[in-house]
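Minutes, project check-in

Agenda point 3 was the complex the collaborators sent over. CS summarized: two entities, 524 residues total, and the question is how they sit relative to each other. Sequences were read into the notes so everyone works from the same version.
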Amino acid sequence: MINTSKNRVVITGMGVVAPNAVGVSAFAKALQEQTSGIRFDPQLAELNFGCQVSGTPQITEELLLENFTALQLRGLKASGLVYGVIAAKEAFADAGLKIAPKEEALSEIGIIFGTGQSGGEKFREAIHLIDDGRVRRLGSTSVIQTMTSGISAWLAGELGCGNMVTSNSSACCTGTEAFLMGYERIAAGKATQMLVGSTSDSGPYIWGGFDAMRILPTRYNEDPQNASRPLSNDAAGFVPGSGAGAFILENLESAQKRGAKIYGEVLGGSVNSGGHRGDGSMTAPNGKAVQDCIQLAMKDAQIESKDIDAINGHLTATSKDAFEIKNWTEALDRKESNFPTINTFKSLIGHCLAAAGSVELVGAVLQLKEQRVYGNSNITDLHGDISDLVDAAALPLQTKNMKINVLAKASFGFGDVNACVILKKFDRLET
Amino acid sequence: MVFLSSIEDINMQENEIQQELFKIVKVYLPQDVKEDAVRLDSHLMQDLGINSAHLVDIALDVEDTFDITLNEKDMEEMQTVSDAIKIVSEKTA
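CS then shared the predicted structure for the full assembly.
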């Protein structure tokens, strides 16, 4: 089952900024208790959005001062940068890693930290100044706050990472893709540790386009906690969210030598694209490619479909949820009572877009570590096309303890892109 | 102030300018440079270790504080705290 030709890779640190909790232990409690992070969003209401609810992380002044100097906070408007830095620093400290000394970078630690687009609000401020002929008034932080690689560049400086430092971007797959890219780099022996994850801004400038596409729920502005209804017969669109998730992935040998805490092992995974062919388009997934991605992930991880105990799906609360379940049943050749337990956290946190994969992966790893699955909230009745394929028991409504040896996590994104990761419980005795 | 003699007036103004400039510069000091390191003849980059990108921000803060506009030549000449005082004094005179 273990691929001996590659270095084994484990997870030794995690950090998260989510709509319903900030910090890994608070997030575990919020998922366990199925606490919603969806709130009425006055700014969206003010701007006449159809959807006036969002999943926006609650960042305290205290937390900001812990993670940023007073100088760094001056004119800092890129919320995604803020979330990413907080989550990444938590993961780095959680793994017990030490910041580089002043004169020398950590050449064995790299960063792949993705985002969709950075600092929309900062960019807006810059556009106004530029259009007024006052470009010289932009100041020095406009570039770092609005460039896609701003987050990985910022973290490289704060921590002193000297291996590969980059930011990937693949819409809702970004976080899961970053995780896999980091895994591959360690597996190939090109780094010892990789800080991986993704982040996504809050606010009207990042969410506006989705509101215009009429794919966000509009009937729950007075009832925010019920707005996000994945898997349900009355699913009404995805709730816009934001946040960041971060991991330290590490060569198993190094982790054991350091005596590091190990959350779980990364067995492998796959990323691919449907190329907008078949049923695929810019906005819809090519089902064949989704199934290929899941099967390639299993092949890479050297497991069989029967080995999968639990799935954390993409499942956004649009009409595509049933299509996703159908693709899982066909890719795994498992259905009805034979279908593995599956859940989604989006009912509690909304769709965190570029941060979705990484925030949800933190939850998925917590499930593996704690041997439980967190409940699916807000299902009135299971969508008919879903109950035709799998038993309702596979979609627990309440958090429950269960034995999970292998867990699959997938993200499917705008642009017809897919990513699937296979994680395994880490058992010290087995090594 | 209008009753003061012109020389005292200028001294008073320079003193105020100096205090305001010290306040501006201190914000941009690297974490390992103490605030009392800021002196009149301190070179902003060489002595105080201020990041060159932040010189741009210091210039913007100076413009906002004294309600003046700095041109390319002013920015180039603003190497030390006393350079800045001289430029601001001329512009606010």
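Noted in discussion: Chain A touches chain B at residues 69-71, 74, 137, 139-141 (CB under 8 Å).
Follow-up: revisit at the next meeting once the mutant set is ready.
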